[in-house]
Amino acid sequence: MRPSGRTIDGMRPISIEIDVTRHAEGSCLIKCGDTQVLCTASIDERVPSFLKNSGLGWVTAEYGMLPRATNTRMRREAKNGQSGRTQEIQRLIGRSLRAGIDRVALGERQIVIDCDVIQADGGTRCASITGGWVALKLAVQKLMNAGDVISDPLLIPVAAVSCGIYAGQSVLDLDYPEDSEAGVDGNFVMTADKLIEIQMSAEGSTFTRDQMNAMMDLAHKGIAELTAVQIASVS
């Protein structure tokens, strides 16, 4: 039995509320159980120097956790003093979202996705990617409505979900009690039918290919559910 009482393929309740901030071109609050992440998208008509005059757009991300997102207060991270974990998650979010965008159609501009964890209960990077895509979609819609972008550069929704081995079973969408005790921990970034990135590590026990395949099957189910919520939120 999982601590939450869910079945092994059961997701936490997922909700996405859009347009939660006034100034950002795209914004949403995503809730995955007790994990809550505020995602905003900001359009910048400039691109990084290495992309000047290339005709290509760029999507990048920043990630952070508020001091009381966790059980005990954390110190705020200055940008030049970010932990390795924070930097790794930021790069993951950016890579993931760029995989689902046509950078030529976006045009030579940059969209920055900010993901701020309000409350953490496991799966914050997955929630950030899933909500980040929604914020990105809303920002792109504004560009299209203004005529600044002719064709939709977002090719397909991108979402992410965690899977792991808890108490000897492959389970979907780990919350913190499971994540902290899991023998194997994994994050799956996907479109509806294609893989973008998989992060898998043994956290105290090894795993077999059959167990890996079982987690893949669970991830496909979870991504389908997340994608449905994403599409409904921006429709």
Task: Please explain how this structure is put together.
With 235 residues, the chain is an alpha+beta fold. The chain has one domain: GHMP Kinase, N-terminal domain (Ribosomal Protein S5, domain 2). 30% of the residues lie in helices and 29% in strands. The chain has five helices and nine strands. A five-stranded mixed beta sheet has the order 1-2-3-5-4. It has a four-stranded antiparallel beta sheet with strand order 7-6-8-9, sandwiched between helices. A hairpin with a 4-residue loop joins strand 8 and strand 9. Helix 1 crosses helix 3 and helix 3 runs parallel beside helix 5. The longest helix is centred in the C-terminal third of the chain and has 26 residues. It starts with 13 loop residues before the first strand and ends with a helix. The model has no long low-confidence stretch (mean pLDDT 95). Homohexameric ring arranged as a trimer of dimers. It holds the Pfam family RNase_PH. It catalyses: tRNA(n+1) + phosphate = tRNA(n) + a ribonucleoside 5'-diphosphate. This is Ribonuclease PH. One of its GO terms (biological process) is rRNA catabolic process.
